[in-house]
Structure formats: C-alpha cells, structure tokens
C-alpha cells in the first residue's frame, strides 16, 4: 500500500517493506554480531562453566580435607581440585579476554553436594556434575569461534572425562556409603 498524499517521513507507521534510510543501531543488543564482543550465548555458557568449576574446586577441597592425608584418595581429590581451580581461572580469563562479563558467583553445587551424607555418594554426585560439564562443553563448542577458547574447552572436556574415570576407579575401591 502506498501513501501518495504524504511524504514518507511524515508517516508515523511506514510500511514494513519500505527501506529505512537510517536504521536504528541494535549493536548493543547483539554483542558479538558486530564484532565487538562475544555473543550472549557464549558468555552465558562460559559463565555457567565458570560457576560450576568454582563450585567443584570448593567442594573437592572440602572432600580432600575430609580424608586421610596419607591416602591415595587424598592425592586424587587434590589433583581433581587443582584441575577444577585451574579451569575456573582459565574460564574467567577467557571471558575477560573476549570482552564478556565474568561471573563472580559460585554454583549451587557446593551446597547440593554437602547436603548428601557420606563420601561415596558425594563423590558419585561430583561425577554427575563433571558429566554435566562435559555435556555443557559439547553444547557450547559449536558457538565458539575463538581458537584459544576452543582449545581450552576441548582440553577441559578431555580432562573431565579422564577425571570421571579416575574417580570411578577410586570409588570401586571404597566401601559403599
Ligand atoms: Fe569440573
């Protein structure tokens, strides 16, 4: 439909098929799309992983300190704790480097794990959390274009699978409960 009697700029509701000479700038609503920062999906995904790894580091420190310091399990939990802490640092630094706002929160995983009674059930719950992280990385990777971030996530995925296996093996040697 045309409006022959009015100049287009006078029309408060111009037809949608009429090209706008000066389109509004939506760049702030789509960071990443215009090359000025990561997409919100990437920021949200990396922050979810950051909060999970931070929580994992805290929980594993508590679990590590709850077992005999001379036991192999203490060494294993200490190694897992270091991995989680290093992952949190890498995720935080990656978010900052890409220009995303890094979360300062710790995931609810700490409270959920400690609400469970017994070391073995807690470790099984930790492994479920680790498997969640692997799935989250799988979801996120297709959206990641930054080469360093991709390499970091792929390595994080690999180390999570290895740590899940190591934790499973340790659980097999522990009395249930
Ligand atoms: Fe983790």
TrEMBL record:
InterPro entries for this protein: DUF6306, Ferritin-like_SF
Residue span, DUF6306 domain: 40-166
Region spans: Disordered: 1-22
Q: Which Pfam families match?
A: DUF6306
What the entry lists under SUPFAM superfamilies is as follows: Ferritin-like
Q: Could you identify this protein by its name?
A: DUF6306 domain-containing protein
Species of origin = Zoogloea ramigera
């Amino acid at each position: 439909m045309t409006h022959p009697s009015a100049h287009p700029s006078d029309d408060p509701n111009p037809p949608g098929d009429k090209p706008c000479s000066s389109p509004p700038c939506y760049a702030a609503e789509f960071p990443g799309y215009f090359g000025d920062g990561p997409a919100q999906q990437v920021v949200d995904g990396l922050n979810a992983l950051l909060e999970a790894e931070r929580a994992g580091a805290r929980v594993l420190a508590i679990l590590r300190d709850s077992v005999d310091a001379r036991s192999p399990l203490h060494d294993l939990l200490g190694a897992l704790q270091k991995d989680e802490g290093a992952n949190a640092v890498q995720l935080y630094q990656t978010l900052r480097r890409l220009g995303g706002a890094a979360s300062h929160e710790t995931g609810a995983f700490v409270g959920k794990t400690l609400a469970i009674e017994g070391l073995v059930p807690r470790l099984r719950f930790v492994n479920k959390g680790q498997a969640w992280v692997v799935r989250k990385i799988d979801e996120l990777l297709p959206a990641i274009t930054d080469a360093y971030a991709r390499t970091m996530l792929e390595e994080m995925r690999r180390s999570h699978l290895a740590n899940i296996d190591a934790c499973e093996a340790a659980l097999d040697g522990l009395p249930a409960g």
